[in-house]
Amino acid sequence: MEKDVLYERGRQMRLDMFGEPGIAGMDDADDFREPLQDLVTRHCFGDVWSRPGLDRKTRSIITIAMIIGQSRPAQLKNHVRGAVANGVTKEEIREILVHASLYYGLPSVSDAWRQCVEALEEVGAY
Questions:
Q1: What's the burial of 86, exposed, middle or buried (CB within 10 Å: 0-12/13-18/19+)?
Q2: Burial of 34 per CB tally in 10 Å (0-12, 13-18, 19+)
Q3: Does residue 14 contact residue 22 with C-beta atoms inside 8 Å?
Q4: What pTM was estimated for this model as a whole?
Q5: How far apart are CA 120 and CA 90, in angstroms?
Q6: Which domains does the chain have, with CATH numbers?
Q7: Per-residue pLDDT of the chain (126 residues; tens, 9 = 90+)
Q8: Distance between CA atoms of 47 and 31, rounded to whole angstroms?
């Protein structure tokens, strides 16, 4: 698939937020996985995450809150790591979790809390 501005911008954002592991999936994608990597890179990060209406920190906060509600632990950990790169603090992540407990319930937020701690520890932010 032809690489364009959205793709290159998305690749750079993934690198900024997630480091080398964030682009490894792109570089290692075979012909079966490449369409997903292209969609995530071009549409998610090259287009939506790059829009001027919200900064990266705000987008990270919103994303964490939504993923908590979806109970997606792997995505949550990944986006917590990215959020730290975008300037979200441990204290802000704690407050997202407290606030989410009102809307998603304690069982799902309790699980999310553990995932957030693990991700924060991984990036040295705990």
A1: buried
A2: middle
A3: yes
A4: 0.92
A5: 7
A6: 5-48 (no CATH), 56-122 (1.20.1290.10)
A7: 456 999 999 999 999 999 999 999 898 999 999 999 999 999 999 999 999 999 999 999 999 999 999 999 999 999 999 999 999 999 999 999 999 999 999 999 999 999 999 999 999 999
A8: 23
